[in-house]
Amino acid sequence: MTITNARGHLSSETIDLLLLSALKADEANDAKAHIDGCGLCKQRWVELNEDSQKFKQFVFARTLPQVEARLNESKQGFFERFKLQFVLPALGLATAAAVALTFSAGPGTQTEDDVYIGVKGYEQTFEVFAQRQQGTAFALKPGTALKPKDRIRFVVNPGHAKYVLVASVDGKGAFSVYHPFGAEESEKIAGQVPRKLELGSTVELDDTMGTEKLLVVLSDAPVKAEALKAAVAANPTAPKLEGAKVLTQEFVKVAP
Fold first, then answer.
1. How far apart are CA 237 and CA 25, in angstroms?
2. Percent share of the chain, pLDDT over 90
3. Segments of the chain assigned to CATH 2.60.40.2550
4. Where are the beta strands (DSSP E) in 109-158?
5. CATH fold of 105-256, please?
6. CA distances from 66 to 54, 63, 139, 187, 211 (A)
7. Predicted TM-score (pTM) of this structure
8. d(Cα 247, Cα 26) in Å, to the nearest integer?
9. Is the dihedral of CA 137, 142, 144, 146 positive or negative?
10. Which residues on neighbouring strands pair with residue 4, listed in sequence order?
11. Cα dist. 33→3, 7, 8, 10 in Å?
C-alpha cells in the first residue's frame, strides 16, 4: 500500500486507517514518521482526532440508542439476523475514525483523495451486506467473491438526495433493478436526510457467474430504470445521469 498521494502527503485513507489502527506495522510507522516531519499532515492528523472525539461525544451518543431501539422493533426477516453484527460495529468504527470505503462515480480527473471519502454525515455512500445460507453475514468489500443464493442488502447515506435506485449488471450484461426490486423508477426516501438508511429489498443472487456491477443512483427527482440502463450502455465504466450521483461497486460471483 502506498501511504502518500501524488502530492507527497498522506492520503485521506491512510490517515483514517492509522486512526483505526488498521495499517500494517511498517505502514503505521512510516505514516507516523511522515506526520512528524510534515506540518500539513500533522494538522490533518490533529483535526481528525478532534473530529473523532466530537463525533463520539455529540453524535454517536445520541444516535446509538435510536438505532438499538429500531433494531429491537422487528424480530422477523433476513436482515434482522445480521443488523447487530454489522450495522452497530460499523457505527463503532465511525466513532473511531468516521471513515468507510465509498465507491466513486467513475474515473475522470479524480485524485486518490477525491475517490476516498470519510463519512462526515453528508457524504453520499453505500455499503453492501451479504449472508450465505446457514452462515454468518459479512460486509462486502471490493473484489469480494459471492456465490449463487447468497443474499445481499444495502445501506446508503443519501446525503441530501430524495430518491434512491439500486441496479445491477451481471456477468452476462443483463440489467436488473435490485431496489425497489423490479421497479421502473427510483424510490422516494422517507424521513429526514442525511442519515444512514437500510433499504428494504433483499436480493438472492442467481447462478450467473462472473463480475457483477452494482449501481446506486441518488437524486433529487425520480430516475427511470430505463434511463440508468441507457447510461450504462453508453458508458459502462462510469455511467452518468443528469441531476444524479451514480455510485458503483463490483464483485465476482463464483461457483459454490
1. 35
2. 37
3. 105-256
4. 125-131, 137-139, 145-146, 151-157
5. Immunoglobulin-like (2.60.40)
6. 19, 5, 22, 24, 37
7. 0.55
8. 33
9. positive
10. 10
11. 11, 17, 13, 11
